[in-house]
Amino acid sequence: MPVPETLEFFVDPGRCIGCQSCIQACAECDTHKGQSMIQLDYLDRGRSTQTLPVICMHCDSPTCAEVCPSDAIKRAEDGVVQTARKPRCIACNNCVLACPFGVPKMNTRMNLMMKCDMCYDRTSVGLKPMCASVCPSQALAFGTRQEIAKNRPNSKAANTFRFGAQTIRTKVNVLVPANAAPELIDVTAAMYEPTIGHDMLESVFGGKGEAGA
Amino acid sequence: MSDSSEGSGSDARRLRPTPGLDLAVIREFGPFRAYASDIRVDSGVTPDKRVKTHCCFCGQQCGLELKVKDNTVIGIEPWYDFPFNRGMLCPKGVKRYLQQAHPDRLLHAYEKDTSRASGFRQLGYDDAVRRVAEAIERIQREHGPDAFAILSGASLTTEKTYLMGKFAHMCLRTANIDYNGRLCMVSAGAGNKKAFGVDRAANPWSDILGAEVVLVAGANVAECAPITTNYIWQAREQGAKVIVVDPRITPLARTCDLFLPVKPGRDTALFNGILQLMIENDWVDHDFIEAHTVGFDALAEQVREWTPRKTAEVTGIAENSIRQAAEWWGSAKTSFLLHARGIEHHSHGVQNVLSTINIVLASGRIGRPSCGYATITGQANGQGGREHGQKCDQLPGGRDLANPEHRAHVAKVWGIDAVDLPQPGVDAYEIMRKAERGEIRGLLSICFNPVVSLPDNNFVRAALEKLDFFVAIDFFMSETSRYADVVLPGSLQEEDEGTVTQTEGRIVRINKAVDCPGEAREDWRIIQDIAKALGRERGFTFDNPGQMFDELRVASKGGVCDYSGVTYERIEQNFGVFWPCPSDMPEGVKAVGPQGTPRLFEPGSWNPVAKGAGPFYFPDGKAHFNPTPYVGPAEDVDEAYPIILTTGRVVSQFLSGNQTRRIGPLVDNYPEPRVELHPRLAARLGIADGDWTFVESRRGNCTLRASVVTTIRPDTVFIPYHWGGRKSANQLTISAQDPISKIPEFKVCAVRVVKADGAPEYALLLESQQ
After folding, report:
1. Region B657-661: what's the mean pLDDT?
2. Would the CB atoms of B222 and A19 count as touching at under 8 Å?
3. What ipTM did this prediction achieve?
4. Closest Cα of chain B to A150: distance in Å?
5. Please, what are the domains in chain B?
6. Could you report the per-residue pLDDT of B151-185, keeping only the tens digit for each?
7. B223: closest CA of chain A, how far (Å)
8. How does DSSP assign B140-168, residue by residue?
9. For A27, phi and psi rounded to 5 degrees?
10. Rounded to whole angstroms, how far apart are CA atoms B605 and B589?
């Protein structure tokens, strides 16, 4: 059964609190119990508490599948890019190196690439994926586009990304400020922008001289 | 206690190794990290059952389902229908199941045995109970009933907390019972009773939505009450301005609209300053103040001195930020104010709480939709655990041990003479002081790990060592249980049933998922077994928690915390019931709805104190403004100790860590405590990120790695307190207490910080969680 077309995945980095609930819940998914497919990092802990969860974006033309020499990675008709098929995966690491989002992980013990399949056992029967179910701040959200539009009026969904010369469309959406100008996110350019929260820091602790006096 | 065991007891005390480096006991009892394995990672396993219950950790009490196979909890499933969290869980909730069937689990009773390296040997359950009863009998005979004390906890079900109070007051007749909510909810409780006459969140969390301003003071919501984040941020999506008061830029503060980086210990000054601006600009609700409150004029006079300039000087917050906060708060139509331990853990914690309530009452925004106020409870039963008689001055139903009418009511329910009830006893820290002075000779502790969680814990250790007899009921060998003469194996939350009352005042059902392993017992059975061994089993012959709950309903009837109309069925049918929920109302007064009373203080509402005179719980039905003169912290910085230490929590650990430091994935999330300091301070001290850093107060010291971050005030360092031994932040903290609530001042003391010479001894000997 396919994932219902009306239900979509939304990532809102502005809401992430870094609690790692998604990582813990991912390891509870029945298809890869004990292993998490999610990466969560501080962007710059020295200067901000901003964190970012990285889940599989489920690309329309998945680079991981394109570079796979053994055709082990399939994209289903509903747009979910499946984890590598065990009989075909030769653990060559091509996908791990090629994915622009850095998602696939090599399980060296099993000689198998593993990645998120959007909790297929859950989403195909209308349930939310584990990570989006538990996320306490709903930085990871799964629902209809109408719900998101209603509940997050200050954001809009984007699913087109530019990495240098490569443009990628994804099944998973990222929520960006509603007033953000471009319809596509230039990831390479964004790498040189400061972490969110710096301006606040300056106004809070900056220019007050030596504290503790 | 026999002569021989008394001898070995004192030997054990003499031979005890450095606290926290007692490797033999750690080797036998942990904490070790558990990970999912075997049946828990086998995808082919179908659970025998899925049990709807709640998380065992914090006061949010998120609904979840436990998946059970062969008496093992193999995982969790979100419970999407439970309205508070709708499936959402923090990492502790997701991994809580790994505490069950844990290799460290106590399966037997133990007694002290110095001939064994770990200091303990197994003991038959019945023999252990007999030893406990003999010790209680002997100590009380020789030194009086009050010489045996009880420490209880607010992670227990309400049924158990009721039983603990009854056990102390009726069976042991000791005045000295107190609980670990003394470190948690008592400042908020005392403040709420002084202002409103009742101690409960005034509103359900759904009222956060629709608020124009959400003010969060001293609450690291994203880490300590993660689910509340979504409520606050959903309010923000709908236009709310979020104001955060905290010395650290917490994950919630990162995107707030206004951040007020208060200097630790100066909260009263801030709220006095905000109130003064509200008065000056006429941002107060005169009609509400006139009709529903007393004491405003005296308060207005008292805060007059708190000009923005003076407030800024004392609090360390920019004057324009204070003005902005007052304007947003003052001119809002709807609002919600939340606070937690950040303003409560002070030697003037009650004043801090009252100063926030004053700006709520002055705004008139309470008792209506989207107009709310609440403290965020800490422990699972942080609310229910402070209502039914395990506090040192309390009887069930929120009644007072010192009140003759209240004593008579409860004595009648218990079938005893009111003169046989003891008078109020002393608080948890004073119990330790009395133990250290030899006035308290025996102690029973359950659900409490004071060696980690009390301040100045070098003193706590010394106090425990002075006891003639100490019995701990525990499911894991906590740092405190290591000091016990007898350890009785109690129950995990999922091994018993009952109710707890979560942060909104909603009573929810805890359902049993698995049986106790080995010789472990449900805690209430252990207490009843001790009563029986003492030959005083009358009143302690319950067959199940439901019977205790039914007696509690009667005991609470007519009190402020009235549970008389609550049944297990009603809870299950309505996703919880909010107290007060009386079984019957006086003639002409409308009964509460199926869900009880989600929102307090609604216009025209009835309560047993005001009896219709007004919505607040005083005879005239009016709320009280309380004067809040500013008082600084008990120990301010000086030349010798020039830096402020504040303590708190991280998201993946819970309280003293007796459970969460045994759950591998949670330990990996944040393995050991680090001392957080600002780069400006770090530069002055020559400390780089990751350096071993020596932090010392007048009471103790510890060596931890530094975390150099710009997200903290440059005059303050922060250490999370979940670890024991030489990693414990509470070696440094001060035992100064609030004069009213007796809460300790965990949030401010003075320290000096230097770069350490090298790694501490423990770094080579212990795993991170030990």
Report:
1. 98
2. yes
3. 0.94
4. 9
5. 3-28+105-183+383-545 (3.40.50.740), 42-99 (3.30.200.210), 202-375 (3.40.228.10), 643-765 (2.40.40.20)
6. 999 999 999 999 999 999 999 999 999 999 999 99
7. 7
8. HHHH-GGGEEEEE-TTS-HHHHHHHHHII
9. -70, -5
10. 9
